[in-house]
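sorry to bug you again but im stuck and you know this stuff better than me. below you get a single protein, a line of residues and a line of whole numbers that encode the local backbone shape. mainly i need to know what kind of three dimensional shape the backbone takes. anything you notice is useful, everything is just below:

***
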Amino acid sequence: MNARTDILTTAPQSRAPAEIVESYLISHYPTSLIDVRVLRDGRRLTLRPVLPQDNRLLADLINRLSERSRARRFPNAKQPASPDELASLSCIDYRRHLALVVGIQENGRERLVAEARYLIDEDGHSAEFALVVDDEWQRSGIATWAMFALSRAAGAAGVGWLHCDMLADNEPMLALMRRCRFCCTVDRSDRAIVHAETRPRALNAWRPAPAVSLFGWVQRWLGASSPAVTQY
């Protein structure tokens, strides 16, 4: 659970959400954050920054979540979630507000299986983050992958601290925080809430080097600018 980033914010009333998505102009799309991992069965997972038109894919992801997973990530969400409600989560500036999604191609169409984002606080030095993984894809390493990608982007943006609040019974999130060596403390006034925080530079320094496939090694040796492909 997160105080701000988990809220399904509706688009401004002065313009229709569909109009916002269609007219939204991306001034800086961070292609350097794109990453590809190959599953053992040959399918590819692509981690990339969100696009304005992803509001429909985000709605599909949220509506597929179990009731428990949805409540942990979007406690105020209406059901079913509609693409119009998610326009403000897909139309972002990639600077103060960054969102990453993980997708896979199924029957010629992309399906999102995870979403992670941070929103830089008003002080400009810290950022609140949140993430969610499709129930079918949990415990597959996607959350850790997305967390490190988010941390790497935050560090490059000059963010000094990453933090989030979660429910104390959110075991999957707590396990991820322990695995990534976050400092976790129980809220003094509400023991049902746990605060987690870390410095991006500390998390990025600890990150283990991923196993690189032969194709990915050749790409790096040749200095290719396309996304690296690693075995997953």
Summary: The CA atoms of residues 35 and 47 lie 5 Å apart.
